[in-house]
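Handoff note, outgoing to incoming analyst
You'll be picking up this chain. Sequence as last confirmed:
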Amino acid sequence: MKVKLLFLIAVICLCVSGCAQQNSRESNIPAWDDRTPLDESSSATPSFSDKLSNIISGGNSEYHFRKVRWGFTRERVMLSEAGNTITENRGNALVYKCKLNGVYCKLIYTFKDNRLRTAGYVTQTPVPNADNLIKSAVDKHGMPDTHTSDPNNGEEMVWKTSDTVIYANLYASVTKRTMTKYDYSSGGLLKNLIQEGLEERNPGEIRYWDGVYSHVDMAFFRELHEESFPLETLSFYEKLLAGIVKRRKRTNIPGLGTIPGSLP
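Most recent structure output, in case you need it:
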């Protein structure tokens, strides 16, 4: 009987010791490896791209754009975007697809002599909510250093830091006519209230917009102002990110199809 009692006590001691060791090991497990997460934010597992980009950047959080710095080679940029599919890979540009603030965009990186010098987002197609790109820029950078607005060029905003020029542009590129029985008149009891911006409230039209939200290496930006013919040194995507080239405007009319140009 004494032998059995001693054996039972020994088993209980081993179990308690094993549980204590297990709890000790679990206390050292990182939050993303713990099977019982404390909360949603601390338990999210870092993606392969996050882990890899942290390794190649040495944990540097001072990025110029996303998880890259100016001067990165295309190979290092590709590593920072590991897990994302490249849709275009040419000598001076890498292009991905992404979604920013509800807007489907092209994510573009451009290079010169295999060194990153511009990057940013451009709408894939004209969309009604392209202004979300501008909102993303304002939310992140605050009020711009310069802000211009006109019917032809749309909204343009520029921010400048010691390292980067940030540019955001929104412009209407497609006007779609729709079939409707009613339109706003030029008169009525409230005519004084509806004269200004009457065309924008036309129920027979839908406007689709394009947007650009780009980042340019400040050193490269300064070099452009020192060159005699800087446009000749820029690639197509760099001109697109700088707002130099834009999607051609057009109007879609039921029964006639799409025609060049759009209403002012």
